[in-house]
Design goal:
By secondary structure, the protein is α/β, with parallel strands linked by helices. It contains eleven helices and 15 strands. A hairpin with a 4-residue loop joins strand 11 and strand 12. The protein binds S-adenosylmethionine (SAM) and iron/sulfur cluster.
């Protein structure tokens, strides 16, 4: 009851800001994005979406304000707990087609607030990545990506800055090559460090406030003792933000791979485990399907990243229009199941949000010395 009241009060505050000032204080991965000057259409849709999320409503179904786009489904590295490197999750390598991406932005962009441009693969391997960002940015959508940092040449860094991208996360899971390559198999730490320097330099050369350069460290059993070294490295490389992410693959299986990497220090773990299995949260409510979805590199639209194998895809954007997919029968049936019987959806078994997260260490941003958390306008 109290929680509901707190949620309603929070909603009322945001609704006021949205309606009266056209502002939206969005926090994603602990970074505050203060969005201003939002057009009426987007504002109204967001208003409906937030109301539905607050009250867990089945209807109305708004357009999604958030979406994740899988730009490529292949990678230059072979991180052992990433589906891109695991044989049984192999998919035909694909780059999302630029014209299908543009169709998505043309048809859903008026309502979109925030796009995460990565999936199971390395986004910067897409030759049209910057053109995609530019297209979404021109529509007023906030765009964020995550990269393993191997393709951040001076040229690409400059194009990225010019594209208007808001945040670039660079995954660096070790302060020495030996530790780094235990998870980032096939990676070269010096190349990644040079990439971060290139991006920081391009930003400064072009006198641009964006992107926010977020150096990310996934804390695991083999690198947990390098926390201080990696923070110092982030400061040395002049990243704007250093973020710590707890380890948690987006699949659950009995291969034992998850247990190989769980940090020994309990406070650094993402999940609670009992008898070797993640413990699920009882109070979990999923609002994906109303507020966002996953645009897969093969042009299909899925409800969630956990359905990256597209076994329950809602439709194919190359063949259909977005509104027919999003408001269509398949999407509606899946939402109904999500609302009433989540266990009947196969991919929800893989859900990272459903498992109990340990307080505080799901994702923590620690400002580097001299580089606190920043508000991006
Ligand atoms: C699948 S990766 C794709 C983007 C890019 N290739 C990269 O590594 O940053 C998406 C995000 O998941 C993170 N990630 C990879 N393996 C992870 C794991 N086992 N647990 C938590 N996050 C993970 C990456 O660091 C990245 O921020
Ligand atoms: S770099 Fe990213 S996409 Fe590539 S294998 Fe590692 S986590 Fe997966």
């Amino acid at each position: 009851m109290r929680l509901r009241f707190t949620k309603l009060a929070e909603y009322a505050k945001i609704a006021y800001l949205l309606a009266v000032k056209g502002e939206f204080p969005l926090t994603r991965e602990k970074i505050d994005y203060h969005i201003r000057g939002m057009p009426l259409k987007r504002r109204y849709n967001l208003f409906l979406s937030l109301l539905g999320d607050t009250l867990n409503l089945r209807r109305p179904v708004p357009f999604p304000p958030y979406f994740q786009v899988e730009v490529t489904n292949f990678c230059n590295l072979r991180c052992p707990a990433c589906p891109a490197a695991i044989k049984r999750y192999h998919r035909k390598p694909r780059c999302l087609k630029l014209d299908v991406f543009k169709k998505f932005i043309d048809q859903a962009g008026d309502y979109l607030v925030y796009l995460s441009m990565w999936g199971i693969g390395e986004p910067l391997m897409h030759p049209d990545f910057c053109s995609m960002v530019e297209y979404a940015h021109k529509k007023g959508v906030l765009v964020v990506t995550s990269t393993n940092g191997h393709y951040l040449t001076p040229e690409l860094s400059e194009r990225l800055v010019k594209s208007g991208i808001d945040t670039v996360v660079i995954s660096v899971d070790g302060a020495t090559q030996e530790i780094y390559e235990k998870y980032r198999v096939g990676g070269n730490l010096e190349q990644v460090k040079a990439g971060i320097r290139n991006l920081v330099a391009a930003k400064s050369r072009l006198k641009s406030k964006t992107p926010l350069v977020n150096m990310r460290f996934i804390v695991m059993s083999h690198n947990e003792n390098q926390l201080n070294d990696i923070k110092a490295l982030a400061a040395d490389l002049k990243a704007d933000v250093f973020s710590l992410r707890s380890f948690g693959p987006i699949f659950i299986d009995d291969s034992g791979i998850e247990h190989e990497f769980i940090p020994s220090e309990k406070r650094l773990r993402r999940y609670k485990y009992e008898n070797g299995k993640r413990v699920n949260r009882r109070d979990f409510v999923c609002r994906l399907g109303w507020s966002g979805g996953f645009f897969v590199a093969d042009s299909k639209i899925a409800l969630c990243e956990a359905d990256f194998m597209t076994r329950q895809a809602l439709g194919n954007l190359e063949l259909e229009d977005f509104k027919d997919i999003w408001f269509g029968r398949k999407a509606d049936d899946l939402r109904e199941k999500l609302h009433t019987d989540m266990d009947s959806i196969a991919f929800c078994k893989n859900c990272v949000f459903r498992s109990s997260q340990l307080e505080g260490y799901d994702l923590v941003n620690i400002g580097c010395e001299g580089f606190g958390l920043k508000e991006v306008c």
